[in-house]
């Protein structure tokens, strides 16, 4: 397909929409400067001004199959015109509920054999926390990690620790933090010894690869020790797989790269709906204790999520993620050698990132790449995520690397100063999760 940029960014039509939305939603401060049309294919999408972009941000990991995938188009055609498409799904069911549960449980490890379907990542995390706490009558606090991100609802937000902007004036569930490195085991054991025993800890929650907090990959020893210690002291371990899960690392779940299995896990984003997954014993609760109105989003969300799992299997996309991940990472490492502003290429599969010198340069780079037709996202304070859809091929990777290389040259040669309407969007790369 190829990138095609034919207007200034944002184009005139996009600007009208963006300005109008902004007027009606004053708190909306981080849109990317285009409005997508329904056009595009694979890793490319069109905007309503006729520009075509190469998307290496994959809708913040929510678009594993790319744009207008034939398998998904077929599902949408097959759904017909039934309405309402959104049922009160904890109470009223359609076949897609069962099929989704069956497919999901097939790809989770044996002891994680029961799931509750919800609407978002944060809701999945909230329910994981609740599942853990129900059997912990002496619990006084939860444990999460420095730089973690688990969502913006208050319980999940209490466990979040990546940026202060998320947490202004919130009231927290009591939480203690562990460093995201191999010293965490010692700190956890110290907590147990000094804070009144392991039963005071409701749960430990961790991202095997921190998403919003900077695409930091856990040290394998840290993950192994964490599993060992939580098992030894009978503390429920929750893995938050909202961003890193469902194939992004080339395995179904990011924790599988570390040879561990948690007691409870969340999924969302690529799954199109949210899910809290655990052993069935954890779900033995009073009726109504764990529920919500929209169990698993709309029928469309369920059907697309379900097809996503089937398509990943049918088209061997986990293999593609692994192969393309190696090619992409190699390309990034090569480019980093040529550019002093770029460093610390990291990640697993297609969950990759690198750093640039500072936040200002990072934000400027994201716009520079956008002007050249490539969408990437920020992470942490000065990182850039490189997270194409699982269907990406070597051609798109080469096109991406060329754009990255030339944007970095530009950044290094001149002090890049963006002009025009695009300047209003300078922080668009920094506020997503
Ligand atoms: C690891 C992780 N957990 C939870 C969430 C929250 O998900 P949502 O934005 O769907 O509520 C996110 C969102 O980015 C995430 O990356």
List keywords for this structure.
433 residues, Aspartate Aminotransferase, domain 1, Aspartate Aminotransferase, domain 2, 2 domains, seven-stranded mixed sheet, four-stranded mixed sheet, 12 helices, 17 strands, 35% helix, binds pyridoxal-5'-phosphate
Description:
- By secondary structure, this protein is an alpha/beta fold.
- It contains twelve helices and 17 strands.
- The strands form four sheets. The chain has a seven-stranded mixed β-sheet with strand order 4-12-11-10-7-5-6, sandwiched between helices. A four-stranded mixed β-sheet has the order 1-2-3-15.
- It is globular, with a radius of gyration of 22 Å.
- The model has no long low-confidence stretch (mean pLDDT 95).
- The relative contact order is 0.16.
- The protein folds into two domains: 154 residues, Aspartate Aminotransferase, domain 1; 238 residues, 3-Layer(aba) Sandwich (Aspartate Aminotransferase, domain 2).
- Bound molecules: pyridoxal-5'-phosphate.
